[in-house]
Amino acid sequence: MGGSTIRMVLVAFNLFCFVWGTALTITGLVLRNAISDTIYLNDKVVLHVTTIDVALGVFIVLVSLLGLCGILQSSYCLLCTYALLLVALIITQIVLAIMLNMSQTHQDDIRKWFEAFFAKNMYLREPSMEFVINWVQRKYQCCGLHSSADWGAIVPRSCCKPGTARISCVPYSSGCEPMMEQAASGVGVMVGWVLLGITVAEFVALVLACMVINEFY
Question: What distance in Å separates the CA atoms of residue 137 and residue 143, rounded to the nearest whole number?
């Protein structure tokens, strides 16, 4: 692979990383802002997820910009710094991927989040939470946190099995907590594998960057 081809590949890769990092940052900020209106912001799960999302996104954007500047300006100093930060980014993402693939990680925090999520007073007080809870109950065909008894005498229509809401509600027998935990665990594993895939691409970029650095000798 020629030097010019390597540089073109690195430019394309860093442009992709810039878009990826920007998307992560915006997603984290939007999610944090949306949730702050409906859920306690000191909630550990929400804080951890959004903080990591934004921090990782900003870091990726900075590394990609540094890489682009180093390649386009043929700067030895910038490319060396880029390579070192890329190593740090790779290590960080490997750690995050391992944590996300550990099914038992933060199970207690997730359970507490679901308890607050399905609290009846939150459902009645926040229209946006009402929409989300109804969607979850219809999507997973579940009712309440543990069972329909969690709602007391008034059961939301989203708890009712199809065709029974308007006549005599027959609620779903299963609670939403185990299904939501399983879904959250599945999403965590999927995101973990995505991170590992991107990490492999970043390792290839690191090798290519080192090849460009060697051209200075």
Answer: 6
Please name the residues in contact with 167: beta carbons below 8 A apart, sequence gap of 6 or more: none
Tokens of 176: 């939403």
Query: Which residue do the tokens 């543990």 mark?
Result: 146
Contact indicator for 217, 8 with CB cutoff of 8 Å: no
Host H or E run for residue 31: helix 3-36
Indicate the length of the chain as a whole number: 217
DSSP 2: -
- Is 111 within 8 Å of 181 (Cβ atoms)? yes
Report DSSP state, residue 170: -
What's the rounded Cα separation, in Å, for the pair 138 and 178?
15
CA dist 159 → 117, 139, 176 (Å): 16, 10, 10
Query: How far, in Å, CA of 92 to CA of 52, rounded?
Result: 11
Task: Find the angle CA(28)-CA(25)-CA(137) to the nearest 5 degrees.
Answer: 25
Number of Cβ atoms within 10 Å of the Cβ of 86? 22
Neighbouring residues of 203: CB distance < 8 A, sequence distance ≥ 6: 90
Place of tokens 């960080």: 92
User: How confident is the model over 74-132, as pLDDT tens digits?
Assistant: 889 999 999 999 999 999 888 877 776 665 555 566 666 667 666 655 666 566 667 77
Dump pLDDT digits (tens) for 128-147. Answer: 667 778 888 888 888 888 88
